UniProtKB/TrEMBL annotation, chain A:
<dbReference type="GO" id="GO:0003743">
    <property type="term" value="F:translation initiation factor activity"/>
</dbReference>
<keyword id="KW-0963">Cytoplasm</keyword>
<protein>
    <recommendedName>
        <fullName>Translation initiation factor eIF2B subunit delta</fullName>
    </recommendedName>
</protein>
<keyword id="KW-0648">Protein biosynthesis</keyword>
<dbReference type="GO" id="GO:0005829">
    <property type="term" value="C:cytosol"/>
</dbReference>
<dbReference type="InterPro" id="IPR037171">
    <property type="entry name" value="NagB/RpiA_transferase-like"/>
</dbReference>
<comment type="similarity">
    <text>Belongs to the eIF-2B alpha/beta/delta subunits family.</text>
</comment>
<dbReference type="InterPro" id="IPR042529">
    <property type="entry name" value="IF_2B-like_C"/>
</dbReference>
<dbReference type="GO" id="GO:0016740">
    <property type="term" value="F:transferase activity"/>
</dbReference>
From TrEMBL, chain B:
<dbReference type="GO" id="GO:0016740">
    <property type="term" value="F:transferase activity"/>
</dbReference>
<comment type="similarity">
    <text>Belongs to the eIF-2B alpha/beta/delta subunits family.</text>
</comment>
<dbReference type="InterPro" id="IPR051501">
    <property type="entry name" value="eIF2B_alpha/beta/delta"/>
</dbReference>
<keyword id="KW-0648">Protein biosynthesis</keyword>
<feature type="region of interest" description="Disordered">
    <location>
        <begin position="49"/>
        <end position="69"/>
    </location>
</feature>
<dbReference type="InterPro" id="IPR037171">
    <property type="entry name" value="NagB/RpiA_transferase-like"/>
</dbReference>
<dbReference type="GO" id="GO:0003743">
    <property type="term" value="F:translation initiation factor activity"/>
</dbReference>
<dbReference type="GO" id="GO:0005829">
    <property type="term" value="C:cytosol"/>
</dbReference>
<dbReference type="GO" id="GO:0005851">
    <property type="term" value="C:eukaryotic translation initiation factor 2B complex"/>
</dbReference>
């Protein structure tokens, strides 16, 4: 992996971009919604500090403009749209995805949206107006596609949670968190939640804390104890997703497919909650050809409390002879085929997995009309 | 007249008589009207003898006045979806036109044609569905359905085939339908078997064809109690299972299992049992998409997954 501190980045990129990139790499910012939100907010900040390059060289970012542009004193000659896209958006995104961590579908879609929004700006727009407009666009995107969408999903999903239900969920998902809290606090439904967790991320603890804080009764198990609860207790499974693929499959945190398969085998309905901005127009039949690998040391770590450096030494010291032969694959995602899924809850309603493609098409038509 | 068609006519009356001058006003009036229609419908279901005189039949069905029975009790979902569809259509027309008077006229005009459209829908279904019944086959059906009747009668014009009816407890809809077919000029040979004999007769059946109270978003459908059992039985025997339904019965519902259906009126039936025995007697069950071979609709022959596609298009 190239060095994120290399001068080619630190000299050209906004410090916020670098900071966020390091957070992506270290795992301080995780989760698809959070990563996407952080990215959009970062762009919003960078936009705020952005100034068009002029002959004077006192601007501290985005100075790598072409010489032809710096010769003129007239700002109008430099197309803001082109410059912002090529000097800010693209290098930042490239820095994050190439040097820090591969981008999620949510980030990819949001980035494409932002690029389109920049491209759609009026050619002669004043810089201040453009900033205002783009900031609003970013804000609106985060509000409509993430925040409101989560609430709408919660409302749709509420119709599927009844008194006495025993639900099961996996890891941490923002939308599931919102949904369960809404069901408890607003709809006053009495239900029990099994939170399934798995190494190495152990994100389920976060959901457990969040739900316990509002007084929802929860159970907490590891993935390998799944059959124990699934066999008789669970009435519905709610899962989050990293992306919806157009063939109806779900790209989700590793372990999702396992849960869906087992639930299907026990005839327990599996509902996947996912915002429509995570629809990907890709098709994946399995999770081998395209996936993301995490730090392999996370897998070899026996005690979760020790930090990475200690662990590194542990592995190297104890298994020095084996370390070359040992291959720990910390795979982060898997693909759940549509046949294991009963329904996908989006902000536009509950749809069968086979209709994701239709949703994508209809939404694109809507966007075309809007522009 | 089918219940949703009647409801749409009622909503149309609201538009025609309304003094509203803006889209919002009219929408509010329509929403109110929808609530009144639904509540009135529920109330009528609770009056035990309402049904005997209120069911009228359309001209294309073989004297089915008597066979309607309490089938109205199940039509709740279709009624709601018919109303929703009309509301959606009205809203969309207003949004597209912008001009209030012009769009109001268009809604009224289309609404007036709706009864005709729904009849034409049945004809279209009869036309495309009839091809799926072949010479010498045996068709098994359950309950009374006008659409199924129109398909069977259409097919009988050119082909010879047998029909087996399930008796259709507790309102004996199947037996009554068989009586209607027997007296009809098409002279289709009809047999009636007990509901519980569906497994027994399945081996001699070639095609299973049923109607629907409502077709739901996951591609499954809601129909007279026993349909789910029939569908699983047909699947186990590898027999094609066809559902015939007009597209105005497509409902924005997503039932996950039987408990997930909207609460429906229990069928009226006096049973002599001790008080401590609970009688569970729901009029409808839900059949999941995986048991359905094809759906015959006025939008064409659909696979179950295409239902959701059409619904997204209708309601988007």
């Amino acid at each position: 992996m190239p060095d994120p501190y290399a001068s080619e980045f630190t000299e050209t990129l906004h410090p916020d971009v670098i900071e966020l990139g390091l957070k992506y790499a270290s795992g301080d910012i995780q989760g698809d919604n959070e990563r996407c939100r952080a990215m959009m907010e970062c762009f919003s900040n960078v936009l705020n500090d952005y100034i068009l390059p002029t002959t004077s060289s006192n601007n501290n970012d985005d100075t790598t403009t072409t010489n032809t542009n710096t010769n003129t004193k007239n700002n109008d000659v430099i197309d803001f749209r082109h410059h912002f896209d090529h000097q800010v958006l693209k290098p930042s995104f490239q820095f994050w995805t190439v040097n820090c961590r591969p981008h999620s579908v949510s980030m990819g879609n949001a980035f494409t949206f932002l690029k389109t929004a920049v491209g759609m700006l009026d050619r002669d727009i004043l810089l201040s107006d453009a900033k205002l407009e783009l900031t609003e666009t970013i804000e609106r995107y985060l509000q409509e596609r993430l925040e409101y969408a989560d609430r709408a999903i919660a409302q749709h999903a509420l119709s599927k949670i009844h008194n006495g239900d025993v639900l099961l969920t996996f890891g941490y998902s923002e939308v599931i968190d919102v949904l369960l809290k809404t069901a408890h606090e607003e709809a006053h439904i009495k239900f029990y939640v099994w939170i399934v967790d798995a190494r190495p991320l152990m994100e389920g603890k976060r959901l457990l804390q969040s739900l316990r804080a509002v007084g929802i009764s929860c159970g907490y198990i590891q993935l390998n104890a799944l059959t124990y609860v699934m066999q008789k207790q669970v009435t519905k499974v709610f899962l989050g997703a990293s992306a919806l693929l157009v063939n109806g499959s779900i790209y989700g945190q590793i372990g999702t497919a396992c849960i869906a398969l087992l639930a299907k085998n026990h005839h327990v309905p599996v509902l996947v909650c996912c915002e429509t901005y995570k629809i990907s127009n890709k098709v994946q039949l399995e999770s081998i050809t395209q996936n993301e690998l995490g730090n392999p040391n996370d897998l070899l770590l026996l005690d979760n409390t020790t930090n990475n450096n200690n662990n590194n030494e542990n592995v190297n010291n104890n298994n020095n002879n084996d370390s070359n032969k040992l291959h720990a694959a910390n795979i982060l995602y898997d693909v759940t085929p549509d046949k294991f899924i009963s329904g996908i809850i989006t902000e536009l309603g509950i749809i069968p997995p086979t209709s994701v493609a239709v949703l994508l098409r209809e939404m694109n038509m809507l966007n075309d009309r809007a522009y | 007249m089918a219940t949703p068609v009647a409801a749409i006519k009622a909503l149309l009356g609201v538009v025609e008589r309304s003094n509203a001058t803006t889209m919002m006003e009219l929408q509010d009036e329509l929403k109110q009207a929808r609530e009144i229609v639904m509540q009135d419908f529920l109330k009528r279901q609770q009056e035990p003898w309402m049904h005997s005189s209120s069911v009228s039949s359309s001209s294309s069905s073989p004297g089915c006045g008597s066979s309607g029975g309490r089938s109205g009790a199940r039509n709740m979902i279709a009624l709601a979806s018919g109303c929703d569809l009309f509301l959606k259509y009205a809203t969309r027309t207003f949004l597209e036109h912008g001009d209030f008077v012009a769009s109001r006229n268009q809604v009224v005009e289309r609404g007036q044609r709706f009864a005709g459209i729904s009849l034409a829908a049945r004809d279209r279904i009869a036309h495309i569905g009839a091809d799926f019944i072949q010479e010498g086959q045996t068709v098994l059906t359950h309950g009374w359905s006008r659409v199924v009747a129109s398909i069977l009668l259409k097919a009988a014009e050119t082909k010879h085939f047998d029909i087996i009816f399930l008796e259709g407890r507790p309102d004996a809809a199947g037996a009554k339908a068989a009586r209607a077919y027997a007296s009809h000029e098409s002279k289709i040979p009809t047999t009636v078997v007990l509901d519980s004999a569906m497994g027994y007769v399945m081996e001699s059946v070639d095609v299973v064809l049923v109607g629907a109270e409502a077709v739901v978003e996951n591609g499954g459908f809601v129909n007279k109690m026993g349909t789910y059992a029939l569908a699983t039985c047909a699947k186990a025997h590898g027999k094609p299972f066809y559902v015939a339904s007009e597209s105005y019965k497509f409902a924005r519902l997503y039932p996950l299992n039987q408990q997930d259906l909207p609460v429906m009126d229990k069928l009226f039936e006096p049973v002599n049992l001790p008080e401590n025995v609970r009688v569970e007697n729901s009029p409808c069950d839900f059949t999941p998409a995986k048991f359905i071979t094809l759906l015959f609709t006025d939008l064409g022959v659909l696979t179950p997954s295409a239902v959701s596609d059409e619904l997204i298009r209708l309601y988007q």
